[in-house]
Structure formats: C-alpha cells, structure tokens
Amino acid sequence: MPRHLDRGRTLTLLVLAAVSLTFGGQAIAQAPRQKPQARESAIAPVPPQDSELYCKNIAEAASDARIKWQTWKLISLEASLRDRIEELQRKEREFEKWVERREDLLNEVEDQVVSIIGRMRPEAAAAQLQTTDEEAAVGVLLKLKARVASSILDEMEPSRAAQLTQSMMGLTHPEIQRSF
C-alpha cells in the first residue's frame, strides 16, 4: 500500500476517534446513569465449603458423643458420691461407738464417785460436795440413797444445801416451781 493511503487512513481514524470522544463524552455526560438493580434472584447461592459440610455431617455424632460423655461423667460422679456416703456412714458408726464407749466410761466413773462419796463420813462428803460445781453435786446426791444424801446435806452449809435441794427438785419434779 502506498504510504499516503496509510496516512489518510490513520488520519481518518484519529479524527473519528476525537469526534466520538468529544460528542460521545457529552452524550454520556448528559444521560443520567442508571443504578444497577440488585438482583437477588440472580445471585447464585455459594456452594458450602468442605468445613461447613464436615460440621453438618458430624453434628449428630458429636451431639451423641457429648451426651455419652456427660452420662459417663454423671455415672462416675454418682459412684464417687456413693463411695463418699458409705465412708461417711462408716465414720458415723465409728463415732457413735466412741461416744457410746465414752458414755459407758463416764457412767462407770460416775458410779465409782457416787460409791466413794456414799461410803465417806457425812462431814467429809459434805466438804467434797461443797466445793464441786452444782450440776455434779446434784448428780451425785440424786444417785445416793435418800438417807445418805440427807445426812450429807445436813452437814453442809445451809445456803449451799438449800441451793442443791432446790436444783434436785427442779430436776426430779419439773412441775414444781424452783423457789420454795
């Protein structure tokens, strides 16, 4: 091809491009652009990923496994609780035996003290009970025979004897008033 034709074509193309840009740009600028409408139906759902499929497929098995683990844990705790209850019951029985032994020993000692005071001369027994606390003295006097207890009270200081007698009446006859 001759060169001058080549130049002519190129020049024509350039002029056409400039005209189209000039007039085409104005046409585009004058016409308002339409906003693209959101087409919800046109958007295809995203296929689930492998991790989502895995979670969906294993959910029931995981739930079953969790329930089995919780059941096992409850059974384990129940067995532990039963063992603890048995241990506490065993200790309670042991404690009751110790309390019973202690009470037997105290009763035996108390009986010995009552026996000793019952064999003492009334003056000496009165001196012993004069210094003992009221509860112990009343307990001893109540276990003694009436004749022995009265002879001991006869040898005591009158205010202390009255106090012990009043306490004995309150313990043996709750319906009687404690004051004379």
Walk me through what this model shows:
With 180 residues, this protein is mainly alpha-helical. Among the domains are: 57 residues; 60 residues, no CATH class. It is built from 6 helices and no strands. Helix 3 crosses helix 5 and helix 4 packs across helix 6. The longest helix is centred in the middle third of the chain and has 70 residues. The chain is rod-shaped. The C terminus is likely disordered.
Given as residue ranges, the uncertain stretches (5+ residues, pLDDT < 50) are 176-180
Distance, first to last CA: 155 Å
- Give the CA-based shape: rod-shaped
Q: Give me the count of strands.
A: 0
Give the DSSP E fraction (strand runs of 2 or more residues).
under 5%
Summarize, please:
This protein has 180 residues and is mostly helical. It has helices at 3-30, 50-119, 122-131, 134-143, 146-155, 158-172.
Describe the secondary structure blueprint for this structure.
Elements: H1 3-30, H2 50-119, H3 122-131, H4 134-143, H5 146-155, H6 158-172
Helix pairs in contact: 3-5, 4-6
Keywords:
180 residues; mainly alpha; rod-shaped
